[in-house]
């Protein structure tokens, strides 16, 4: 039996549906999905099997015009994921069409190494009528020579199987890169931190979610099969700490409960989750915090 394996980078603007598509391809939740933009910070890898092919999906941070060090590091991680992949899939939101951001990404694709294979996936097709979809498909293909174009709804699953089969067929021959039962190459500590950060992002509003980070400080396996997980939430101001804690600690309790339940479902066993909040004004300028997120601190240099 000839096996195939390779890396597939999903790129696009923030909120284009990259995380949703990763999770649907893998069949499990490995990537943070919220209604807020710029929530994926690290290049999260999800692993999926299709026939004799092992597909490693690299869910990159959304590509946008960076303003801060963290933004620049995220954008560098996204383009790094595209440059390293065997196949790149550009996701474009059907209802938003050819935005300035998409135009900049198309220019960036021209800078990828020669021979890099790029497919187009127009997502959220249920939001537009067929004539508009056809016009967008033609406009995008005029701007860049995509190998294939797929019309999909990552959320509802429409067209995803066609994309999945094509990707599996087009990967290079070679041995599988991960054990058959592994669905992600992120350490459990980082997956747990991402789950908690997602709950914080969903619960809190405005700029605060982008000025906090979550780190799993300890993970202890217990004799009864359960796990004790201690996490630290770093915020930049005292006022933010109060918002995260909430009145009489109600907000942090609700976040802890939601994150614990999701982690228990993911692991299939009991979890004891303990959250603390610490003010660390300079965490956005600390190399160690970036390493915990899977980003390169140096990529944030102006």
Automatic annotation (TrEMBL):
Q: Where is this region: G5?
A: 152-154
The alphabetized UniProt keywords are:
Cell membrane, Cytoplasm, GTP-binding, Membrane, Nucleotide-binding, Ribosome biogenesis, RNA-binding, rRNA-binding
Q: Which residues form the KH type-2 domain?
A: 204-281
For region G1, the annotated ranges are 12-19
The protein's location, in the record's own words, is: Cytoplasm; Cell membrane
- Per its UniProt entry, which superkingdom is the organism in? Bacteria
Question: Main site of residence?
Answer: cytoplasm
Annotated Pfam families: KH_2, MMR_HSR1
Physiological role: An essential GTPase that binds both GDP and GTP, with rapid nucleotide exchange. Plays a role in 16S rRNA processing and 30S ribosomal subunit biogenesis and possibly also in cell cycle regulation and energy metabolism.
Its family remark reads:
Belongs to the TRAFAC class TrmE-Era-EngA-EngB-Septin-like GTPase superfamily. Era GTPase family.
Can you state the subunit structure given in the record? Monomer.
Q: What is the designated name of this protein?
A: GTPase Era
From which source organism is this entry?
Pseudoponticoccus marisrubri
């Amino acid at each position: 039996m000839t096996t195939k394996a390779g890396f597939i980078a999903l790129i696009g603007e923030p909120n284009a549906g990259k995380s949703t598509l990763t999770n649907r391809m893998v069949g499990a939740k490995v990537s943070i999905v919220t209604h807020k933009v710029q929530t994926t910070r690290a290049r999260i890898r999800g692993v999926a099997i299709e026939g004799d092919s092992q597909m490693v999906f690299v869910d990159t941070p959304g590509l946008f015009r960076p303003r801060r060090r963290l933004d620049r590091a995220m954008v560098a991680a996204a383009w790094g994921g595209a440059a390293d992949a065997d196949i790149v899939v550009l996701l474009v939101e059907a209802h938003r069409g050819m935005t300035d951001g998409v135009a900049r990404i198309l220019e960036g694709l021209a800078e990828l190494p020669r021979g890099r294979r790029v497919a187009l996936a127009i997502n959220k097709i249920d939001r537009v009528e067929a004539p508009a979809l056809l016009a967008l498909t033609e406009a995008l293909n005029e701007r860049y020579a995509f190998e294939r174009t797929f019309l999909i709804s990552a959320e509802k699953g429409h067209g995803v199987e066609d994309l999945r089969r094509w990707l599996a067929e087009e990967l290079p021959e070679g041995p599988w890169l991960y054990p058959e039962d592994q669905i992600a190459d992120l350490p459990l500590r980082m997956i747990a931190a991402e789950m908690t950060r997602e709950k914080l992002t969903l619960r809190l509003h405005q700029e605060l979610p982008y000025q906090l980070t979550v780190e799993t400080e300890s993970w202890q396996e217990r004799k009864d099969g359960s796990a004790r997980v201690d996490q630290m939430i770093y915020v930049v101001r005292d006022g933010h700490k109060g918002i995260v804690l909430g009145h009489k600690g109600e907000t942090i309790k609700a976040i802890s409960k939601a994150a614990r339940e999701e982690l228990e479902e993911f692991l299939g066993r009991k979890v004891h989750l303990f959250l603390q909040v610490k003010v660390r004004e300079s965490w956005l300028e600390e190399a160690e915090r970036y390493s915990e997120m899977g980003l390169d601190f140096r990529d944030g240099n102006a």
